[in-house]
Amino acid sequence: MRLISKIIGQFVFLLVCFQKKLYFNEYSKFLTDMKTTEKIAVYPGTFDPITLGHVSVVRRGLLVFDKIIVAVAKDTHKSTFFSFDERFQILREVFQDEPRVEVRKFEGLLIDFVKEVGANAILRGLRTVSDFEYEFQMALTNRKLDNSIETVFIMAEDHVSYFSSSLVKEIARLEGDISHLVPPAVIKWFEKKGINFKKKVK
Ligand code: COA
After folding, report:
1. Residue 197 dihedral angles phi and psi, to the nearest 5°
2. 77 catalytically annotated
3. Half-sphere exposure of residue 95, counting CA atoms within 13 Å on the CB side?
4. Which ligand 1 atom sits nearest the alpha carbon of residue 161?
5. Residue ID of nearest Cα to ligand 1 atom 29
6. What does DSSP assign to residue 38?
7. Which of 4, 25, 85, 189 is spaced 20 to 30 A from 179 at the CA atom?
């Protein structure tokens, strides 16, 4: 269906070019523009805090999308350990060297934000079967709100498939080692909030 509308679009454009006596290089520019339409996904979450599991979803997502907007939600059903601003700052630090990743805050409906930033898709990670029911419900609700936005799922890599932000917070509160679960920036932010990982008696 998409292919047919593309062909029709090209044909109509070609006709307009002839009518207006435009040159062929205009037409080839049009074709290049069509090919270079950016594929942008929004990866939303609470990210309280971001884990290496989330990072892995973003990295794999970059194999499919040209750009990923990591969007930290203000309106979440969770009461968070890190404030909205802190979660945003942590994400910015984690992705500061990745030019194809943009970190944004959002509030209100996710689907409105996706449209506002001109993205074509919502990216979500799937870890285990237990994620499926919740993700399925969210994807279908978002589709009901806007049928033109697709949710794309990426399977978490097996070595991070048991990670969760709650698990990270629990270990951190008990001052256990979280270095294999989160990027270094997260450890720094836990320390800023008074958690001393080095205090632990061996
Ligand atoms: N690696 C590690 N952990 C992962 C993970 C991965 N690949 N994928 C998910 N998780 C974990 C998270 O750590 C988190 O764990 P926690 O429950 O222990 O905190 C949990 O799975 C899910 O968190 P997250 O991915 O951050 O998503 P979320 O469910 O908190 O986010 C929003 C939900 C923000 C996307 C959703 O509430 C939303 O869209 N809000 C805006 C309002 C709106 O539009 N509502 C209607 C939605 S249909």
Report:
1. -70, -25
2. no
3. 27
4. 1
5. 45
6. -
7. 85
Asked if residues 54 and 157 have their Cβ atoms less than 8 Å apart, the reply is no
Nearest partner of 123 among 152, 145, 146, 99, judged by Cα: 152
* 78 catalytic residue (yes or no): yes
Tell me the pLDDT tens digit for each residue of 48-63: 999 999 999 999 999 9
Query: Using CA atoms, how far apart are residues 195 and 44, in angstroms rounded to an integer?
Result: 27
Among 50, 52, 54, the mutation site with the greatest number of ligand 1 atoms within 8 A of its Cβ is 54
Give whole-number Cα distances, 116 to 28, 120, 139, 164, in Å.
Answer: 29, 11, 18, 29
Residue 12 has phi, psi (to 5 degrees) of -60, -45
**Residue 94 is encoded by which pair of tokens?**
């984690």
pLDDT tens for each residue of 1-49: 566 666 666 666 655 555 555 555 655 654 555 556 899 999 999 999 9
